[in-house]
Specification:
Oligomer: single chain
Helix content: 40-55%
Mean pLDDT: 77
Shape: flat
Number of strands: 24
Largest sheet: 9 strands, mixed
Number of helices: 40
Structural class: alpha+beta
Distance between the termini: 46 Å
Strand content: 5-15%
Low-confidence stretches: 1-74, 559-571, 772-806, 931-935
Radius of gyration: 46 Å
Length: 1184
């Protein structure tokens, strides 16, 4: 949004006040404030204030003309550059010769060298990747052999432990062991097939029927693991096949097993469990992989696991369909490879069977073989993760000694299944690298029939080769060949580059001159340059200083001095050159101070203080350029400017008055804008200006960080004019007033009623500078700011700058807007960190029906916060609350403001100050992790929990909502019904909690509630924090105070192991309560003016209740002692806890302690006088 530029008050407006340029005719001040607030609201919808709020540029300002000195400096730099051009021509000839001699040699050898490097890089990379594949394949092989050898040993040892004899052995939860083995070896499935001799068949049939319960156990385990999409309904119920069978019947139907060469090998245990229980007892010898070469004979011969041939698609489907759903099998295979789905399904992918013998005795391969594990392997699982991501192209051909082969194309850490057979490009046969897929075999080993020895054959491809081919050699050769041409062009352009270099030097010199110009007036700057030049000439052996030395020696002799300049050099106690100083007889100096800044800054962070000063003084600088006023310096929050130097100015007093008026108007405009960012009380700040005219000595005080300064009595008097002035006013001395009278500006002046007693000056008659409006003199300040009489100022307590600013409706609206923006920022953080699933969200429409008892009964030892890890894993993306929620939030805050009573202390303005302090203390939390690196700091927990932050901030905003201007002890006596409802404890606090919660639960705030919490856990945490923080502000309840003390000692003292489990939650809870407590008393730990202002308001509230007869006993008689006890028994112990817990930044807490000590000491000295003035003020207010 574009805001209007600075509207400076013109000379015509100065003569006769009118409406500001941006005000509509007849528009009231209230309407103008509302309109500006709406404009500011739209500008503040972003996190930071728009840059144009701080843009003080004025397009109407006249640009100063460049000085002749600056032109001379540019010409001098150009002359120096021209003198160096001869070297350019020499280097041009040398470079041309060198390029001609070397370009032919370099270009001819470049291509050969780079091409050879590319080939070497390709070969080395290929071999390196192959070795990485070899390592990965060896790991796969070892996992297969090692995994099923360990499973076989486990079965043997478990059978021995059970006292079982094979084949009559059952592992009751086979899937618990089988699942881990499958994942370890990447097997798709495997089955345990014990050997059953012919004479054992009847006994086996009976045994298998009695022990088929293992299947149900395995199915339950598989369902719990969630490894696939299988559900209970997919499993068929019923008994297993009661006999050993095969599928040799007509059409592949089951029939009694017809094993030619016993023993039988019925399928007993399967992982994962099959869909159909009748799969059990299927004779493993029926399958071709077992019949080829007779599996038992091979196992007896080699006594270790071996691979059979690659299964044909029909066998693959018969095996995998027993336990895999088609979609699960597709998902399983897709996890490893890609393939052309239009040509074949995942069941058609190459499978292999690995047979692992099971021995009678564990770890004894010489004992009797009692069965085997038939393992179904999918080759897809073993060709992945062989290459890093981004390296594509090599072919992997899986071959075995049985004459079978498969082809995959490797694409990074995945692979693409091409089909059965060898499909690599014969062009790359020379790149073949063989990787055995088996354990090491003896040289010349001939495997028995049925055992297949596998190996991976890796081939390069054009795609892989392209990764290492580039046109770098060609390009670089062309670059070298073209170097001569480009260098020739470059040297023809060399003169242009030299000119560009000269222009840069000139610009740099101009920038330097600009910086010096901003620090020193033009006359002083010229003398500084001359002084510098003289020193340089002296260093080169020139004697240009002799004449100046002679002149200074003559001056010293006139004063009776016998010391010469040469002696001064030797003794080194004076500068040899003359000081740069002048006397200006006709000047007007302005001292301007921000009234209320000291107390305001004590409640702000350093960045906020500098934001205010930079914004305001930057605007003053811009006005000074327009008014031809010279800014001298800023001292803290004091701004010093002068008119009449270095350039003489006839109407310097008039100019300075106009400048002071512009500054006052700009100050008020900016504080209204900054109040939306820095807090509403920023709008209460104003300027106090003092002007005095006279002679002044000005010059450069040389030395470290020398600068232009003013000296003399005129400076001191101008400072006294400011310090004895009043907020929003311009006070001038008699000398300045005389100049204004001489300029015909008598109507600007209004004599001050009383004379000013200025330090070192005695009593002075001063004047207020006013403007004329409708025939009456009004103060320079706008609107209803008028000069206060001395009688008024004497009766006002020194709150801030002596002016007790009423909390008007406009200020209340500003506080509502500021608090709403503050809460909106926390809601945005909640939206960013929230990760609650949709299913966990509560029904916000039914919340109003929930009834709660007394909130004090909901207090717990601590609030339970989510683990810190949950915040680290959630959020991360920028998020904003819905606009509807923000509208409801602003309406909610406005409703809270309206519910506050019109009390001097317990009001919405005070609640806003407490809220501001809570936010500041959250910023002072020390969130650094512990030395061990573990995040066990409760400050980290609170900083990551915006729901808890919101509960704490909202508690600070509403904690005095139901306060009636009297303590709880009196409030209970005035309202028996409420006392009974809340058990006579924390009555106003509990009523505040219920009132605000009932307001929040109204249907019109449903979007606001959705923004605060989504789940029941978030809601309960928010309510618990809210209740704990509100009730923490009642420091008079003895039970709560004792409970807080015990919980604090438990949180930050030495505790048992059992108590330590919840220590972090307890520490975070106590920190929240302490933050609100400290913020409620923050005025006692800030600047004296802040303490006196709000302490006075509290006394006024209590004394008013006494005058009205609500409180027995005159509080003024015990107020001094009561405040002292508050410091000793409440404030100091509270600050000690803040310091001892080491959770807050120590610098801030030490500042709080220092302020509290200073306030107590000053209260001890001035308390009696202040209380007397406050009593008089209350009676004066009531009488008026």
């Amino acid at each position: 949004m574009m805001l209007r530029n600075d509207a400076y008050i013109t000379d015509e407006v100065f003569e006769q006040e009118g409406a500001p340029p941006d005000d509509a005719p007849g528009e009231s001040r209230v309407r103008r404030h509302l309109r500006q607030s709406m404009m500011m609201s739209s500008a503040m919808m972003s996190e930071n204030l728009s840059e144009d709020v701080f843009d003080f540029s004025d397009n109407n300002l006249e640009n100063p003309e460049p000085s002749n000195n600056e032109d001379d400096a540019v010409r001098e730099v150009n002359a120096v550059a021209q003198r160096e051009i001869w070297g350019v021509h020499l280097w041009k000839c040398m470079f041309i010769f060198v390029v001609l001699a070397t370009s032919a040699l370099v270009s001819s050898g470049t291509y050969i060298v780079l091409k050879s490097e590319e080939d070497d890089d390709y070969n080395e990379s290929y071999d390196r990747f192959v070795e990485a594949m070899r390592d990965a394949v060896e790991v796969h092989v070892e996992h297969i052999f090692l995994g099923f050898e360990s499973m076989a040993n486990f079965v043997s040892s478990d059978a021995a432990a059970q006292g079982a004899t094979f084949p009559f052995y059952t592992l009751k939860n086979f899937e618990a062991e089988g699942e881990s083995i499958r994942k370890f070896s990447r097997a798709a499935m495997f089955a345990f097939c014990p050997f059953v001799e012919t004479h054992q068949i009847p006994e086996w049939m009976n045994y298998s029927n009695l022990n088929q319960g293992w299947l149900d156990n395995s199915r339950e385990w598989a369902l719990r693991s969630g490894e696939s999409s299988v559900v209970t309904a997919d499993y068929q119920t019923g008994p297993i096949t009661p006999f050993i069978y095969d599928l040799g019947g007509p059409g592949g139907t089951p029939q009694q097993a017809q094993t030619i060469d016993p023993p039988y090998a019925p399928v007993w245990h399967i992982s994962p469990p099959p869909f159909n229980p009748q799969t059990i007892n299927l004779d493993g010898n029926f399958f071709q992989f077992a019949r080829a070469g007779n599996a038992k004979e091979i196992l007896e011969e080699i006594r270790e696991g071996f691979f059979t041939r690659i299964l044909v698609p029909g066998e693959t489907g018969a095996l995998t369909s027993l336990i895999f759903k088609p979609e699960d099998h597709d998902a399983y295979v897709s996890g490893f490879v890609d393939w052309n789905r239009s040509e074949f399904t995942s069941f058609d992918h190459p499978h292999n069977v690995f047979l692992q013998p099971v021995f009678q005795d564990a770890l004894d391969s010489t004992s009797r073989i009692v069965g085997y594990f038939a393992v179904n392997l999918i080759w897809d699982a073993y060709v992945t993760n062989l290459l890093p991501e981004g390296v594509n192209g090599p072919y992997c051909v899986v071959k075995n000694s049985c004459g079978q082969s498969l082809t995959y194309r490797l694409t990074g850490n995945r692979a693409f299944y091409i089909g059965r057979g060898d499909f690599h490009d014969p062009k790359y046969d020379s790149t073949e690298r063989v990787i055995p897929f088996s354990r090491p075999l003896a040289d010349g080993y001939e495997p028995p029939e049925g055992r297949c020895i596998f190996s991976f054959h890796i081939y390069s491809s054009s795609e892989f080769e392209d990764l290492y081919e580039s046109n770098t050699a060609v390009l670089l050769t062309c670059v070298v060949s073209s170097a001569f041409f480009f260098l020739i062009v470059s040297y023809f352009m060399y003169d242009w580059f030299v000119r560009r270099r000269n222009s840069k030097v000139v610009r740099l010199a101009a920038k330097t001159s600009e910086i010096v110009s901003s620090l020193f007036p033009s006359i002083v700057r010229e003398r500084l340059y001359a002084d510098k030049q003289q020193k340089q000439e002296q260093a080169n052996g020139q004697n240009a200083f002799k004449n100046a030395t002679y002149q200074q020696e003559k001056a010293l002799h006139r004063q009776g001095s016998t010391v010469t300049m040469n002696q001064m050099d030797e003794e080194g106690f004076m500068y040899k050159s003359s000081p740069i100083a002048d006397l200006y007889a006709d000047t007007t100096i302005m001292f301007a101070d921000i009234a209320g800044f000291t107390s305001w800054s004590s409640t702000r962070e350093p960045a906020q203080v500098f934001t205010l000063l930079e914004t305001i003084y930057g605007a003053f600088d811009t006005i000074a350029k327009r008014r031809r006023v010279f800014k001298v310096e800023t001292i803290g929050d004091c701004y010093v400017a002068v008119a009449g130097l270095p350039d003489p100015m006839k109407d310097h007093a008039v100019t300075m008055c106009r400048y002071a008026k512009d500054c006052l108007h700009k100050m008020r405009e900016l504080t209204q804008r900054l109040g939306q960012v820095l807090g509403p009380d920023t709008m209460e700040l104003d300027m106090r200006c003092g002007l005095h005219s006279g002679a002044v000595t000005a010059g450069v005080l040389r030395g470290e960080k020398g600068r232009f300064q003013l000296f003399g009595d005129t400076m001191n008097t101008a400072s006294r004019m400011e310090s004895t002035g009043r907020k929003g006013m311009v006070q001038v001395s008699q000398q300045t007033a005389d100049l204004l009278l001489a300029a015909g500006k008598k109507h600007w002046l209004k004599p001050r009623e009383e004379k000013v007693n200025a330090k070192g000056k005695g009593e002075l008659q001063t004047y207020w500078v006013t403007t004329r409006s409708s025939g009456s003199d009004a103060g320079l300040s706008t609107d209803d700011h008028n000069p206060l009489s001395s009688e008024d100022s004497e009766h006002l307590s020194s709150f801030g700058d002596g002016v007790d600013v009423r909390f008007t409706e406009d200020m209340a609206q500003s506080h509502v807007k500021w608090n709403a923006d503050l809460l909106r920022g926390i809601l945005n953080t909640i939206a960013q960190k929230r990760c609650a699933p949709e299913s966990a969200r509560i029904d916000h429409n039914a919340e109003s029906e929930i009834k709660y008892g007394p909130s004090i009964d909901e207090l717990r030892e601590f609030v339970t916060f989510p683990p810190i890890e949950s915040y680290l894993e959630s959020g991360g993306e920028e998020a904003l609350v819905d606009y509807e929620a923000y509208e409801e939030l602003e309406d909610f805050v406005a409703a809270v403001a309206e519910m506050y009573g019109d009390h001097p202390y317990h009001n919405f303005e005070h609640a806003s100050r407490v809220t501001m302090s809570v936010i500041k203390m959250f910023g002072e939390l020390n969130t650094e992790p512990s030395a061990s690196g573990r995040v066990m700091n409760p400050a980290v927990l609170l900083s990551m929990d915006p729901v808890a932050q919101l509960g704490c901030v909202l508690a600070a905003l509403v904690q005095d909502l139901s306060h009636t201007g009297v303590p709880n002890s009196v409030f209970i006596g005035e309202n028996d019904e409420l006392a009974a409802t809340y058990g006579g404890r924390c009555v106003s606090e509990q009523q505040s909690i219920d009132s605000v919660w009932e307001l929040l639960m109204e249907s019109k705030y449903i979007n606001l509630r959705r923004a605060i919490y989504h789940t029941e856990e978030e809601k309960q945490r928010f309510r618990q924090v809210f209740i704990h923080c509100v009730l923490a502000t009642d420091v008079t309840d003895a039970k709560l105070s004792e409970s807080r003390k015990e919980r604090w000692n438990k949180a930050f003292g030495i505790v048992s192991r059992a108590e330590a489990n919840n220590r972090l939650n307890l520490q975070a809870t106590m920190l929240l309560e302490t933050i609100v407590q400290a913020s409620d008393l923050i005025h006692t730990m800030q600047h004296w003016e802040v303490y006196e202002k709000w302490g006075g308001k509290l006394f006024e509230e209590v004394y008013q209740a006494h005058v009205e007869g609500r409180i027995e006993g005159d509080p003024s008689t015990s107020w001094i002692e009561g405040e002292t006890k508050m410091f000793d028994n409440l404030v100091f112990p509270l600050t000690e806890r803040l310091l001892e817990c080491k959770i807050f930044k120590q610098g801030t807490i030490n500042a709080y302690i220092d302020f509290a000590k200073d306030n107590r000491n000053q209260w001890t000295q001035d308390g009696a006088t202040i209380v007397g003035d406050l009593v008089a003020k209350v009676h004066a207010t009531r009488s008026s």
